[in-house]
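Q: Could you write out the predicted structure for this multi-component system? I'm mainly interested in how the pieces pack against one another.
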Amino acid sequence: MNGVHDFGGMHGYGKINPEQNEPIFHNEWEKRVLGLFVPIMAASGMCVDEFRAQIELMGASNYLETTYYEHWLHAFEKLLLTSGLVTEEELRSGKASMVDPAVSPPVTVSDIPVITATGSSARRDATVEPKFRKNDLVLVRNEHPTHHTRCPRYVRDKIGQIDRDHGVFVFPDTAAHGNGEKPQHCYSVKFSARELWGDKAPESDSIYVDLWDDHLILG
Amino acid sequence: MSDHESDHEHHHANSRPLSEVELRVKALEQVLTEKGLVDPDAVDAIIETYEEKVGPRNGSRVVARAWSDPEYKERLLKDGTSAIAELGYSGIQGEDMVVIENTPDVHNLLVCTLCSCYPWPTLGLPPVWYKSAPYRSRAVSEPRKVLEEFGVSLPTTTEIRVWDSTAELRYMVLPERPSGTEDMDEEALADLITRDSMIGVERLKPIVKGAS
């Protein structure tokens, strides 16, 4: 979707202002939100693409006015409501109105070292032919889907060059909506700064964006 | 109730009422705990992992090894995932890694314009500025101005490559080894290597002998 989250190339957000000696967390509640990610994703069976799609749907002003971990909190609540694991009333009250005795056991302390050190790769060993080869010129499809996509607006309808083939990966644009993983090749595509931003951009500079077969056509 | 919850309540009992977001987080964790979907001790263990075990020191060790061992560096640039796994820094948000090398002629810069993708196992959790609208909007369209705000001024003869993490690959910059570090061992080198140099918003300074 052409949401406000798709920041690349936008103007008006001001200077960067890094915080000196920044702490890892600014509030205790941020720690709890970070720590809830793994257990909630395990309990709900949701994938990271569904998580990101929920953040993108939170509404432009809400997205801009809230912080990173508030985005996460919003996505947790939506994913859990959508999957039927909690109700609105339970989230309001903080009290479980119904406990399912058949629920799978939660992630435990002893699971954490393995889970954090392994993660969950989106790479798939499916045999899928690549549509493009290194150095091919490609045109990014000029599509504006209303669903989740990892193809940012600033490269659409632009010509780039395949820099490297990362291999076969889950396609987030479908996986985010329960429409299957649709494994396909994901590439690093090189765009000249001038192709994206015009003649005033330095000739020497370039931007590399990871895109999938379905985002591209031969240029 | 777990210890952290009682600590949490105690901490706020004498200061101020909980904010709306604090109440939401508390309610969420309580409900999920009552339902048997979350074990708060596991939440504590994850927090401890990212506060104490995983951080940019890991990435520094990868870079120091690459500077000290040309064969390791070759493996790292060819297959970042397995070379980093050799040092034990794999996992969530670093499942598939790509390491890109700065040279005297090429400077690399990382960003995630769509969300805030960042290589957790080697760099830790991302700083706020990396997740902010100003950085995410500008890094791809005016990287030189962004670098100047970080105190890095590059001549137009230096090629800038910006890497937008739009997929599940996670990138890390291999900074240039500064001059004056020829006699240093890996541990001393790792002390020099900063998080920002591995994001690409800093160039490491030459070491001048005798200077403190």
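A: Regarding packing and overall arrangement: The radius of gyration of chain A is 20 Å.
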